[in-house]
User: Fold this.
Amino acid sequence: MVDYFDGKTFTEPGKLPVETEEGGAAVIEAIKFIESLAPIKPSPKLRRLDEDEKIPVIRKALESNDKLVQICKDHVLDMGPAGKVGFIGTDDSTPASRLGKYGYDIEEYGES
Assistant:
């Protein structure tokens, strides 16, 4: 990922360049900081619906999750063309309802 920076410009192959505030050095600093942290314990309230059963979702700190990435992409595709930002979608969807659409039954969540 850091290899895609030229100064403060981030250019992923096949995509448009993005001008950042701090550049690749900030990414390296953030990665080093995160790697120095102890893994967090998952909330006992975090559950995923899987084959009609509630099964705990156990994730390492900052491990990628394809379903969560897709939920975010859906929200961006909803809000971006409308020129909107925020947690409530143009269809009045909430973070909880977007999570539910992909099978998550969550009482506590954070969106950033």
The two ends are 21 Å apart (CA to CA). Confidence is low (pLDDT under 50) at residues 51-60. The helical segments are 24-35, 66-79, 95-101. Residues 1-37 form one domain.
